[in-house]
Amino acid sequence: MYEQLSLYIDGQFLGSDGREGQDVTNPADGSVVGRLPHASREDLDRAIAAAQRAFGEWKRVSPLERSRILRKAADLIRERAADIGRNITLDQGKPLAEAIGEVQTCAEHSEWHAEEGRRIYGRVIPARSEAVRQFVVREPVGVCAAFTPWNFPASQAIRKIGAALASGCTLILKGPEDSPSAVVALARAFHDAGLPAGVLNVVWGVPSEISRYLIESPVVRKISFTGSVPVGRQLAAMAAQQMKRSTMELGGHSPVIVFDDADVDRAADLLQAFKFRNAGQVCVSPTRFYLHEKIYDRFMARFIEKTRAMKVGSGLDEGVKMGPLAHERRVPAIASFVEDANMRGASIELGGERIGDSGNFFAPTIVTNVADDSLLMTAEPFGPIAPFVRFKDTDEVLGRANSLPFGLASYVFTNSSKNAHAASTGLEAGMVNINHFGMALAETPFGGIKDSGWGSEGGVETFDGYLNTKFVTQLN
Fold first, then answer.
1. Using one digit for the tens of pLDDT, what is the confidence trace for 385-408?
2. Calpha distance 456→397 (Å, rounded)
3. Is the pTM of this model over 0.85?
4. Across the strands, what pairs with 135?
5. Which of 51, 349, 456, 469 has its CA 20 to 30 A from that of 418?
6. Residue of 98, 111, 249, 457 with catalytic role
7. Rounded Cα gap, residues 104 and 86, in angstroms
8. Average of pLDDT values for 304-328?
9. Is 106 one of the annotated active-site residues of the chain?
10. CB-side neighbour CA atoms (13 Å) of 376
11. Is 102 part of the annotated catalytic residue set?
């Protein structure tokens, strides 16, 4: 059965009950799988009041007790992973194995935050006078508001839930209306784990209306957003007007550099699978492929062969490696990248068109001889389309890779320590992966620079946005 969708406010799951709402559809066939209630103004006020009241109690709860609840929630998430994953496939479209894997990582993130939240330390600063004692403490900022995207509805939400709760903050979370089941399921797991009422609240509605109302509330002291650069700019501006701190994980256009000394076959195999994961709807998806001219033909032959063999279909079907795009609007958006590339003289080596007339399916697409100023090389495609170009030397390719305002993820394949060092030092990105994909682990920071945002989620850095620094100096 698909998740019973609801709001979650002050420890209660609230259904339609006369509220406005929207249908939730399966992107593989357009069928309606559920009905999502929208929060009224009264619901939002209730969520804000509940979070404010709960903060006064939750901030004083022992880190050991917070840890116990987070670990219990992790156990429940892991037990329910198959059902939660199936529902993600139904409303978001990704293959079932990917969806279940996403949920399992949520359990790991909750466990990590449970343990690391016990290690939020202050420090003693040696004083200039023996009569003075001075020290620093870290305290939770208060009520937080978080806004999470549709492409990874579970894993993006748990990062914000875990960091806020482990820090001693309370949270109002607005998840993705298009793929809401995972967020409701996470709320159920924390509810069943014994989380006190009001510590976590989940609301739904028109995104611009909900975000403005929460950000403008004087009760909310911190904002966390994962999504597009344009929306991130708007929310960051609103938060700044209210002097509220924010964490922004925004879009990217990740360069891939494959040097001539790389293990070409291994690089092609890894990148092909990673490129079409979640139909390319990943903020850190490899999206600009720079191949050294000496290995270009070999790499392309391997990449095309692997892509041609990939099965596309409903995420619940056996053997499917790529599902539909999550929204109908994404189909013409990807087609526009193909059209622009065609007009600029690029070659469509594979795909380039919609598949069938039912569901949001677009063929895995490979484009070569792409101009650096084309739409595909300058705007984040966020879909199953991969452009390839040649390069000759390191300085040249680093200049091209750094030419955009994005700076989220990047990828390098080389067997040379000199090339690895040059690339890791020269790439303007918050994350550099060399010869593998090592991001998004609970214990490692995840975040970008430039237009790709600020702040990190994951690693000990994740708590920085949720804690105030208080200096205490005392004369004895």
1. 999 999 999 999 999 999 999 999
2. 27
3. yes
4. 124, 472
5. 456
6. 249
7. 13
8. 98
9. no
10. 34
11. no
